[in-house]
Amino acid sequence: MKVVNLDAIKTKGEITTQSVQKYLVYNNFLNILFSLLTAITVFSIVVVFSYFVVALISFVLALFLFIGLLIITLATLGIVYLTTDIGKAWGWFDPLMERTQAFYQVLDKIYHVLPYLDIACIALCVVSIVLFAKNKLCISKTKIVWLSIFLVVLVACAIFAFLSQGGSK
Prior knowledge:
Shape: rod-shaped
Largest sheet: none
Order of helices and strands: HHHH
Strand content: under 5%
Mean pLDDT: 80
Structural class: mainly alpha
Distance between the termini: 45 Å
Radius of gyration: 27 Å
Number of helices: 4
Number of strands: 0
Number of domains: 1
């Protein structure tokens, strides 16, 4: 917590225990709001990037599986298929794609909620920027800058989520 010299600040009247308590409650509320917005912004970024990462990982795994099985086939001239059950490995593509599809279904459910969560967080970002700017006892410029960055990121995530769903339905 930042140390504030209450004597150096111009106030309307005397500094009382009640005014200090009010400041502490207000400051704690702003810190909790900042932490909440940080967590939701990181969550939104992770959800948006996971959309691409899952597709890339499943593609790379399928490619490695195909190349590995192709090398085994060409290197052994099919002898491995005659002596072992390695021929069943070609069936591993189906479970891989089924698991990828199941993960995409979970992502789809999150994607239906994400734009509305981002819009609510954009409103909270604007409110917290205003509250941090109006805090006369302790103006936190760093948090205002971070909240502005969060605002831009949340707007980008909301736009991406709306566009990936086909716009606002």
